[in-house]
Write a structure and sequence with these properties.
- By secondary structure, the chain is of the alpha/beta class.
- Helix content is 46%, strand content 20%.
- It is built from 13 helices and twelve strands.
- Helix 10 links the parallel strand 9 and strand 10.
- Helix 2 packs across helix 11.
Amino acid sequence: MNRRRFLLLAGSALASARSLAWAQSTRAHRVAWLAAGSKADTEAYFDAFRGGLRDLGYQEGRRLVLDALFGDYARDRTERLALELAALQPEVLVTQGGAARQAERLSPAIPTVFVYSGDPVVAGLATSFARPGRHLTGVCLLSLDLVGKRIEILKEIVPNLSRVAIIANSGHPGESRELEASKAAAEQLGIRVSYHPVRNPAELDAALPAVVASRAEGAVVFPDPITLTHRSVLATFFLKNRIPSAGGWAPYAESGFLVSYGPNLLDAYRRAAYFVDRIIKGAKPADLPIEMPATIDMVINRRTATALNLFLSSTIAFRANRVID
């Protein structure tokens, strides 16, 4: 091969390589969003996730195609939507709530990022937090360190508190560990606990009279899809029966609970974008450690406190990230 022909071939190969690299760097990435809840209830989380992607340089219509579907709390519908999204062959699937269960069953597997309220290891979504080991990873909203703090905050607001009712979905992965941590915290404070497990709306309706019968002076509600969906019903019940209540996420306090203490959900969904970016750039979900939320918020509903004739000290009001007036 003469020198001129060699240079031409080398130049052509280099141009082709540059063209391929340019195409790979500028091609649009398809990402799918599947929510177990309704659009109205989860749109703020979706927007937070989209904002996280924008912060990382992804722009819809340019580098990003984003498909979003909402299961409306119906398992059959969520399962069907998961299959529809899988047919689009997204690079990454992002799930809200229980939709992670549907993503886990997809075949072939799709790299999945979840924001999950339960324990993903107990739920079978991952082998461990440090090395998920499968095709799913993301943010876990459950933290046993926060459970006892909710009881402590109730005790601080209601100094004479001696009996607390705990309402929780007994089928929620990790619920048994939450209950153990809550009982341990209550025991240290000299508080007796009555436990009211619920797995569906009918059991929730049946549990409410039992809370009154237990003579509860306070209530702690574990966050999960059932209690979140019915948080306004619970808030109305607690207020009517003059029971100070604590929930795990801000929407509980926003709906009328006295206080909430737990992860900032919007920050958690913004963080999901980090995982998507890593996977698009070649990382495997199996190797990306599951994270716990970095931002914890306390929200107090002053209107509820006033209705219950409870005094909010300046100390606790100052510690709150937000006070609803």
